[in-house]
Amino acid sequence: MASFDVFDNALLFHSYTNYMRDYELLIEVHVGPAEPGTYSYLFRYCVEALLRTSVPSEIYRASLDERLIEYETGKDLDGFVWGVNWSPLDPGWRLVEPSERAERWGRELGLNFHEVHIDTNAYAIALIFADLTITKRSGHLDPGINRAYIPLA
Fold first, then answer.
1. What is the mean pLDDT of residues 94-110?
2. CA 82, CA 131: separation in Å to the nearest integer?
3. What is residue 142's predicted lDDT score, i.e. its pLDDT?
4. What is the model's pTM?
């Protein structure tokens, strides 16, 4: 994980895979030790995925306007502009060691599990997983995201 640190890069998408066992993050890397491009971070054998917003409630409340899900219609409005279509990874990720939850899963399933916390300006994600596979999907930066950074007010 250290050689593919995600700090200050762009989280484009995250979800369980369509077969629902592994959890995937698509990250556009533009700074750090890895070559620039779009990478798949596949957290294999993901037995827990906990997700919550990290947008403060008063800002979230001000961000319910549907125009905020599109950058062009939301960029001049007050609130969190969801339509930038990415989230900065800040401070990125950290491995939780020791992790009681990972150790419990390890005892139950006979695998070596880990716990990672991933933080962005929009989400806090906690995953319990047994393996991580990182695959470079593209050497190009994604043209579909708006790189205008709109910080929380």
1. 97
2. 31
3. 56
4. 0.87
